[in-house]
Amino acid sequence: MMRIYEFTKILKTLLPVALLLFASACSPTDRTAESPALTELLDKTAIEELLVDYYSQLGTGGKGFADYYVEDSVLDVNGTIAKGREEIENLYKNAATGADSPSLMGGTFRMMLNNTRINVNGDSAKGDTIWVGIHSPEPKAKPELIEHGRENDEFIKRNGRWYFKHRMITSDSGLSGIFAETYIER
């Protein structure tokens, strides 16, 4: 009987220690501290998600574009420059109400991003992408390519989230009305 009591006493002491060791071995560790390559990959993925989320609003009359930018950011669309979140939000409002705005065309408008290249350097990054605007008036209609161009972006990471810091967007075709006046060939 004494041996069972001693065994139970030892088990009660060792079991919490064993469970703690097991839990710490199974719990995720901060692998990013161990692997700069993994950190860079996760950051690139987060920036790609930022781009996809941002572009999915175009043509929908969406609001909150400025939420993707830091306060002192700059947006240059074909030479039309907006500085800071308020000006950026106003630029998108003006673009959405233009006569040739995709949001007023009816049907479905989507942006495709291609050949995206992102270079991360700590809490900042630079990226380039090619974009194509596609419009379909109805599901049975053939899609129309209505615009395409490229962009060069600078990103900044704040409090674990990526934002646009500086964007330069250049249309290569399908230049919309409000940006035609300031268009700069680059």
Give the helix/strand layout.
Layout: H1 2-26, H2 31-34, H3 36-55, E1 69-77, E2 80-83, H4 84-97, E3 108-121, E4 124-136, E5 144-158, E6 161-173, H5 177-180
Parallel strand pairs: 1-6
Antiparallel strand pairs: 1-2, 3-4, 4-5, 5-6
Task: Describe the protein.
This protein has 186 residues and is of the alpha+beta class. The chain has a single domain, classed as Nuclear Transport Factor 2, Chain: A (Roll), CATH 3.10.450.50. 36% of the residues lie in helices and 37% in strands. The chain is built from five helices and six strands, in the order H-H-H-E-E-H-E-E-E-E-H. A six-stranded mixed beta sheet has the order 2-1-6-5-4-3. A hairpin with a 2-residue loop joins strand 1 and strand 2. The longest helix is centred in the N-terminal third of the chain and has 25 residues. The protein is globular. The relative contact order is 0.15.
| Residue runs with pLDDT of under 50 for 5 or more positions | none
Q: What's the CATH C level?
A: Alpha Beta
Mean pLDDT, nearest integer? 83
Secondary-structure element order, as H and E?
A: HHHEEHEEEEH
Q: What name does CATH use for the topology?
A: Nuclear Transport Factor 2, Chain: A
How many beta-strand runs? Answer: 6
What's the N-to-C terminus distance?
A: 89 Å
Instruction: Please bin the fraction of helical residues.
Output: 25-40%
- For the report, how would you describe the main beta sheet? 6 strands, mixed
Q: How many helices does DSSP assign?
A: 5
| Oligomeric form | single chain
Shape assignment: globular
Question: How many domains make up the 3D coordinates?
Answer: 1
Query: Per CATH, which architecture?
Result: Roll
Q: What structural class do the secondary elements suggest?
A: alpha+beta
Query: What's the arrangement of strands in the largest beta sheet?
Result: 2-1-6-5-4-3
Strand content: 35-45%
What Rg is obtained from the alpha carbons, in whole angstroms?
25 Å
